Amino acid sequence: GPGKAEMYAGLQELGVANGEDLKETLTNCTEPLKAIEQFQTENGVLLPSLQYALPFLDLHGTPRLEFHQSVFDELREKLLERVSAIALEGKLEERYKKLEDLLEKSFSLVKMPSIQPVVMCVMKHLPKVPEKKLKLVMADKDLYKACAVEVKRQIWQDNQALFGDEVSPLLKQYILEKENILFSNDISFLQNFFSPSPKTRRQGEVVQKLTQMIGKNVKLYDMVLQFLRTLFLRTRNVHYCTLRAELLMSLHDLEISEICTVDPCHKFTWCLDACIREKFVDNKRARELQGFLDGVKKGQEQVLGDLSMILCDPFAINTLALSTIRHLQDLVGQDTLPRESPDLLLLLRMLSLGQGAWDMIDSQVFKEPKMEAELITRFLPLLMSFVVDDHTFTVDQKLPSEEKGPIPYPSTIPEAFTKFLQENRIACEIGLYYILHITKQRNKNAFLRLLPALVETFSDLAFSDIFLHLLTGNLTLLSDEFALEEFCTSLFDGFFLTACSRKENVHRHVLRLLLHLHHKVAPAKLESLQKALEPTKQSGEAVKELHNQLSEKLELRKPSPAEVTETPSMELPLPTVPTPAPR
């Protein structure tokens, strides 16, 4: 059968007898037993001492096949060891010449399962496998699969499409993993999307596999970067920017200088990586990063496209935005204006570069985006005035009140703030991080004051997954407020529900939040929210699944009729409402 033929493929070319030869010998002979004996002598292991040993093994019932197989396995192990040794000894040209000769002799047996490992081992140790052999391997699915990654790299570097087919599922997996974290049902302000350190993230399966596939091959590294750029342009998905930085830093961890020294972003990314680890850009590193940006020479502006992609990584944006908020608070204490702080201006410069990545790569116009003066002279001072409002209010609360009564918290928002959030991308990003900051401080007053500004923001940033993931996490710190009608109406009716019907992701985030905090929400409000959040015909599986989970939880919460009648009423009787029919 074909299986047998496969097993002995290529032996004839080498003048080694195989099963077919034996068949032929037996068909054309008069004394079959003599013929078999002669075939065994001619093709057996040529060791004089074996002449006596084999009959002895026959007496013990050990089949000759088993004996030959074990000799063969032993020899193959020795050969594999020898090939690996040849690859390391003598002058380069000599050792590769030996291996090439060996490949010439053995390649015709590559289909024999027993010999294949040896052939593959020889190819693995050759820095340049002859083109013809590579083509044969490529043309045969099983051979290609069996190849060592060292050989595959040689095939990939001249076959972008084939390499793309290998990389593509990994990139899909990477994006999915990111989205699963953003939509995870575990909501907490302690553990969020940005919690894992850069070093931990680089240990992820996809980054490790890509690093392994690239090895030290600059051509393959460039191809992967090209895929990432193309996908980022096609989808605007910023997780591709994260992968761009992680991949470079993973090669940095392994000290692959062949690649790191030729990637012009290497030192910048390395420095930024340290900032991301600390979640803060300190003064020393700020100077260093600025040096890289100022050092972009005429004629090399294209590197800005790469730097902008590194800065567009959400982990970089998160670090820059957190650092900006911290700087603003410090400035309030020092009574300094934003335009007088070079560190703050550098943070804004990097934020602009990161936020402008898509436009820059799309337009292929490589120059830094212009910073709007208004951002520095009007918007940031406005944020600082909010910080001051909070200080004033806190101090006022502590002062003994005279006749005037308690001073209310300022409830209006300056129109300029709302306008900035709608029209200026950087202002919007910083504004959103300021809102995350006050939520984390459990500052309910400030949160409710600024929340209405989030309904309409620049390119709907307030409804993006990363912001909603962080906001839902921080809102768990205000969980006790969910019992209050006013708070829930502002948060749900005033913010979330304005976008649920047009944005599936918002629908998911609200359901995540309620699954986590439903026990804090007043029953009447909860019931109306459950209705408002019913999946529609257009809703995807995720929304339906979350809504089912919520409904199950609420079912369990409903008291049984017996309990309801026995509870003595402590409050004023409420007007009776007909009980809704059980669902």
TrEMBL record:
Xref: Pfam families = COBRA1
Q: Where is this region: Disordered?
A: 550-583
Q: Where is the composition biased (Basic and acidic residues)?
A: 550-560
Q: Which GO terms describe its cellular component?
A: NELF complex
Biological-process GO terms, alphabetical: negative regulation of transcription elongation by RNA polymerase II
InterPro entries associated with the record:
COBRA1
Q: Which domain of life is it from?
A: Eukaryota
PANTHER family found in the cross-reference section: NEGATIVE ELONGATION FACTOR B, NEGATIVE ELONGATION FACTOR COMPLEX MEMBER B
Q: What is this protein called?
A: NELFB factor
Lineage per the UniProt record = Eukaryota, Metazoa, Chordata, Craniata, Vertebrata
